[in-house]
Design goal:
This protein is of the alpha/beta class and 151 residues long. It has 6 helices and 5 strands. The chain has helices at 22-27, 40-44, 66-73, 91-99, 112-125, 137-142, and strands at 9-14, 32-37, 54-58, 82-86, 104-107.
């Protein structure tokens, strides 16, 4: 997505298990264009990383960790938000993710309502630089960190 010329927001999901995101794809707004990559190497070949609206990177990829991929992408991302995703909660992984500069550390299963809130926030901020001012309602939507799945 080139933010200034289209109403679509591209979300790049880097995860060897794309089916885990099926509810988000099925229930997400039509303004979201999902692109799936199964490995870090594949993600590094995404056209212009900074033109992506959101990166969701699994912490365990077949060829590298999510933190390693984020470090490789970071110089090209400008202020694009990155969420590191874990298959299950792990405190050490959360610390590593947030220390790498990731905006959030989230755990599967991902909730459709949560993602709908994220999508509304992305749409609201599309033409603006990141981060939004602290008083912004869109920023407030990102201030909730899902760190442990409910059981």
């Amino acid at each position: 997505m080139i933010r200034s010329t289209t109403d679509l927001t591209t979300v790049v999901v880097v995860d060897p298990s794309p089916d885990d995101y099926r509810p988000l794809v099925d229930e997400g707004p039509p303004t979201i264009d999902f692109r799936f990559c199964g490995s870090g190497e594949e993600a590094l070949r995404v056209g212009e990383p900074a033109e992506v609206g959101l990166w969701m990177i699994n912490s365990r990829l077949p060829d590298m960790t999510g933190v390693e991929l984020h470090k490789l992408l970071r110089p090209h991302l400008a202020k694009t938000p990155v969420f590191l995703v874990a298959n299950a909660y792990d405190a050490a992984a959360e610390i590593a993710a947030l220390s790498s500069g990731s905006m959030h550390f989230i755990c599967k299963p991902l909730r459709e309502k949560w993602f709908a809130d994220v999508c509304r926030s992305l749409a609201a901020r599309a033409p603006r630089p990141w981060p939004l001012p602290a008083a912004s309602p869109a920023q407030a939507a990102f201030d909730v960190v899902v760190s442990k799945p409910t059981r």
